[in-house]
């Protein structure tokens, strides 16, 4: 007899891009260290961060965590995407908004700087047009207004390596660098796919980005994954049966987006019962994998260059989940040294991982299945599932 709850509450899981989770799994040490910077202004090597990872690995959610932590320490937060018009949006919209959030005493102090016009109540009215808008001056003034109590966190999401975007980002970073050299307390965090962040570092004229701290987002470990499932359900008033939890962890493979999808489907299967059962987890299994392929894996695959696609396609021949480098070279019709270059890039960006000497394996779960399913669609063959030997699908009725 399954016990029922009086009412069913909405799912607390948050599948979707840029939807920060209720329970943020993993990355505890980094968060603790960065939160300490917000409190102490002792930056150490944390004045610039590069957060890299594939889509759905939790980069935007991490930025949201940092923003919350910074705000609770009284910091000013400027957050934007690395798209065209970044500089104007920050100087014309984000900064005025932040100024109006400051305490009146701080705004009074800002008025004397003369960059901005204020109303009689010390609300921001406009920028003084005779002063050329320079982000560096704005940042220095804002930092001084906080008079050593707090700093400014700038987060730039969706860094991508289009030429225009990089040029604009470089200009932006240069302004930040100038402000820092004039003593402004600024932490800047960039988030994007690894190869794009590498381009940013290469293109940059300022040296501080090169010294950035790298945070690489891959998968959570099994313990962290289990914690996210259990704790999310618990906060919303339900428990998860032991066996159901094990299955959900195996399905999700530590991939943040997939954790939320699997949890969400499991929750919705019987929202009125007190605990999530293995039946719920089984229903979630099938649905979540289909959904993650459509929403995440297909897009992550499309992020690859043609040559990198050739590499992962060659890997997908091996339904066991691991591939021999020399087989990949043969299948790609190329030489070992080229294959090593692709391999390195794919290792760096988090698609594959070494798996014993001379072997690689997919580190993005279900990418191999996705590639095989596309190939099967084209050839009309059945979807091959044989590399699931360690994760047997639950029986269907
Ligand atoms: N640390 C985490 N623990 C649990 N779920 C997470 C975590 N980070 C992100 N998520 C979930 O994963 C999904 C993708 O997160 P997002 O931050 O948009 O990733 P990215 O920006 O890397 O594409 C969202 O559904 C989010 O709720
Ligand atoms: Mg994102």
TrEMBL record:
<feature type="compositionally biased region" description="Polar residues">
    <location>
        <begin position="1"/>
        <end position="11"/>
    </location>
</feature>
<feature type="domain" description="Orc1-like AAA ATPase">
    <location>
        <begin position="26"/>
        <end position="175"/>
    </location>
</feature>
<dbReference type="InterPro" id="IPR041664">
    <property type="entry name" value="AAA_16"/>
</dbReference>
<keyword id="KW-0547">Nucleotide-binding</keyword>
<protein>
    <submittedName>
        <fullName>ATP-binding protein</fullName>
    </submittedName>
</protein>
<dbReference type="Pfam" id="PF13191">
    <property type="entry name" value="AAA_16"/>
</dbReference>
<dbReference type="InterPro" id="IPR027417">
    <property type="entry name" value="P-loop_NTPase"/>
</dbReference>
<dbReference type="GO" id="GO:0005524">
    <property type="term" value="F:ATP binding"/>
</dbReference>
<feature type="region of interest" description="Disordered">
    <location>
        <begin position="1"/>
        <end position="21"/>
    </location>
</feature>
<keyword id="KW-0067">ATP-binding</keyword>
């Amino acid at each position: 007899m399954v016990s029922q709850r009086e009412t069913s509450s909405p799912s607390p899981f948050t599948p979707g891009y840029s939807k920060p989770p209720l329970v943020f799994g993993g990355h505890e040490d980094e968060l603790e260290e960065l939160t300490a910077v917000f409190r102490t202004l002792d930056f150490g090597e944390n004045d610039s961060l590069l957060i890299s990872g594939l889509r759905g690995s939790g980069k935007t959610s991490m930025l949201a965590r940092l923003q919350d932590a910074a705000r609770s320490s009284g910091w000013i937060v400027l957050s934007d995407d690395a798209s065209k018009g970044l500089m104007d949006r920050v100087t014309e919209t984000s900064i005025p908004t932040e100024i109006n959030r400051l305490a009146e005493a701080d705004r009074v102090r800002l008025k004397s700087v003369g960059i901005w016009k204020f109303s009689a109540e010390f609300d921001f009215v406009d920028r003084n047009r005779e002063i050329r808008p320079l982000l560096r001056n704005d940042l220095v003034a804002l930092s001084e207004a906080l008079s050593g109590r707090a700093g400014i966190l700038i987060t730039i999401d969706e860094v991508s390596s289009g030429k225009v975007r990089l040029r604009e980002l470089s200009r932006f970073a240069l302004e930040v660098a100038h402000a820092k050299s004039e003593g402004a307390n600024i932490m800047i965090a960039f988030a994007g796919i690894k190869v794009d962040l590498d381009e940013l570092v290469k293109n940059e004229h300022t040296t501080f980005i090169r010294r950035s701290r790298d945070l690489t987002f891959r998968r959570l470990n099994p313990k962290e994954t289990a914690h996210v499932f259990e704790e999310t359900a618990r906060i919303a008033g339900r428990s998860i049966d032991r066996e159901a939890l094990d299955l959900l962890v195996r399905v999700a493979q530590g991939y943040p987006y997939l954790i939320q999808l699997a949890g969400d489907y499991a929750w919705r299967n019987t929202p009125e019962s007190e605990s999530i059962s293995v039946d719920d987890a089984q229903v979630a299994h099938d649905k979540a994998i289909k959904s993650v392929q459509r929403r995440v894996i297909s897009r992550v695959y499309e992020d690859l260059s043609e040559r990198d696609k050739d590499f992962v396609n060659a890997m997908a021949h091996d339904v066991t989940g691991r591939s021999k480098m020399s087989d990949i070279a043969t299948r790609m019709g190329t030489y070992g040294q080229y294959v090593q270059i692709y391999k390195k890039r794919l290792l760096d960006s988090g698609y594959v991982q070494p798996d014993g000497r001379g072997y690689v394996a997919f580190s993005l779960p279900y990418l191999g299945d996705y590639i095989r399913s596309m190939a099967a669609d084209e050839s009309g063959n059945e979807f091959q599932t044989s590399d699931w030997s360690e994760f047997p699908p639950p029986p269907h009725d």
